[in-house]
Amino acid sequence: MKRKLSRISLAAGAILVLSLCLPWTIIGKTPDHNKVRKYVPDAPVQTPAQDEWTFSADRVVGDHTSEYVEAFGNVSLSLGEDQLRADFARYYQATGWVFLKGDIRAHWGGDFLQADEGEFDLNNMTGWLKNGKLFMAKPHVYVEAERVGKSVGDSYTFKNAKVTSCSGERPAWSVTSEEGDINLDGRVRLYHSAFRIKDVPVFYWPYMSLPGRGPRQSGFLMPYMASSDKLGLQVNLPYYWVINDEMDATFYQNYMSKRGYMQGAEFRHTEDASSRGLWQADFLNDNIRASKESDEWKDYRDDGLTRKNRDRWWVRGKYDGWLGSPQWKIKVDLDLVSDQNYMRDFLDGPNGYENTREEFLDVFGRDIENKDSLDRLSKLYVSRSWDRFGVVGLTQYDQNLAYRNGNNPSSEDPTVQILPELNAYAWQQSLGGGFEGSLDAKYDYFRREYGDSGHRAVISPELKYPLKSRFLTVIPSVSMQETAYSLTDREDVGDMTVVGTGGRDETVDTSKIKDGFQTRTTWTGGFSAFSEMTRTFGLAAQPEADLSLAGTSRWTRLKNSIIPRLEYTYTNHVTGQEKLPYFDTDDRADGRNAVTYSLTSVLDRRRDSVVLSPGADGEPAARVARDYLDFLLFRVEQSYDIREAGRTDERDRYERRPFSDIMAELKIKPANFVDILTRYWFSPYEGDMTQTENSIRFYKDGLGEVSVGYDFLQSMDEYRRTRDDDMSVLKLGAKWNINEAVTLGAVYRHDFVDEKDLERTLYLDWVAECYTLHFSYSRRSSDNRFSVGFDLLNF
Prior knowledge:
Helix content: under 10%
Strand content: over 45%
CATH class of the domain at 54-220: Mainly Beta
CATH architecture of the domain at 54-220: Sandwich
Radius of gyration: 35 Å
Low-confidence stretches: 1-12, 14-48
Mean pLDDT: 87
CATH topology of the domain at 54-220: lipopolysaccharide transport protein A fold
Shape: globular
């Protein structure tokens, strides 16, 4: 197996090298296409400001004493940029009312109108059109109706109309209506309407409201449709409700033919620039349940758990804000779910796990637990910082799904709840005489349903004395950690298996834990030493600040920085810790005596570009602008464990391995077309790679991208570390912008250990003038899924 994995590592390296040799045409510069298609004639050339209408025609009948004036042939009325044109006009001088007939064309307040017949009040800019066509440029909406009425404030009413944001005689989509209205922001209200595709009616709606580009408006959002082996046919119809300027909500009507009807809700609020919240909840009475493990979905049958419940739900949310004063920051993470399979069942869709996770990361920058995790964490943070001090409070609830739905007795749940945790910090600061100091203090109350509960307090002062010279910086440090325990509930639960140092399972014999007040003292000493050597190379002369060279750029300087670093850490080993309570890994302090050494090389380029800026006389002037970029980083690191070199425990099973893996890291980003990241861990004892992380991405705006990724983990069984499973996963991705409207993409993931495809996904995005379409087909090891999404642009 080891030889096989070695070949896989070699193959992965070859893949990455070959990827670097992809055709460099992908980064060739291509001219940008005009992405704005013109659907209306140019607006009239701006004319000097006027305060009254001007009038012209081929022939005019009437004079100043007449009730009205009639004009024939090429009739034109204009006031500034507003214009009316027709074959015939009758102007009533007393009222400012004008009647138009024959090939009416108007440009009015930025809107374009066309009709056979119409009347306008030139004083208040109102009127009507017969067999009219209207184009409102700001919201980009077309209206064609038997009668179009213009009201005060650039709003229109219409009867027997067709509304769309598509151009052409047969628009891609349109809505016909007996009557309706539209305002300046593009909000359309339609009565007795029919939605049409290429003039073919698809469905009827007694009332329809299409929001425009103005303020948020309540209404139904575009439906999400999919079909999968796991859920069946799925239709999710969201309704969006604008509560006020600071709050809104979305309600999801999610029907799944194999599972039933799921009701979802989302609530968002933003009270000020420092506060925002997002809360989501979904509820379902599932048609399917698994009373025994063989009834579970095929990918869930190896976890030893079942799902007997039909009532399924997921409540989650995040909040950033302040408490009483903006200086007191508050953060809330909520994640509660009905069962261990929920995230895996409902992975996709508007309110699925993947979309929820992406939205939380995008809005709050905080993740949620993995979909396979049996521990769902809900947290409340409160913090305050001063110039030299800070405090943080935490309350955490850990929902252990292994003890729900009858899988294990809830009365035997050993999960630790933090109720609460208090932290106080004195930031590192000068103490005089060259010394620097810091202090951390921490208090926790741990609560268990099954097992020990109690208090833990830790105080950790640290002292540093930086020594700096021209060539070398050395920072010696010493710290102490005093820990105190006091149990409130003592319960002997026998042997308890916990994850120890390096991932190895360790056994805690709870019968040896003593009640009452106990303390533990540890000391840590060491130093960090580093230096930086730099050299700058000239690549090219600085370009001249000349107008003819505007837009040109070149690399003019290259700086290479080499940073060697040496760190030493010693922590005393404490005996007799089996008497102390166990709440987490901090309760078993493992001694340390190790040296870590690394070498980092960084390449930084300077680019000089000729840019234009306004000159003193208002004319453009050329100047040279500079920017810098660390485009390459290479780092090598290894540690030597002195304690491991002298270890006497379990020598018959584990040989001494004081040297850690050699870690080599390479990051390359020379320009805006390629990203390369690769990390390798090489074992000097195995003579092979034990872990790799590789990704290469080529991309070009307007053309697409290609990416290659490979992750590898080798199982390990050493004294200081353990990994039970191998991992060898290849990921390929591609996206091709076929043209301005069509994007084709694909994702492929393969597991070399289990010799199976994890994912094969193909998707197509079509962005047209007035709509977008998204098609996706995915074959995963757990499900096959086809989904369709669409959106009406400008609404």
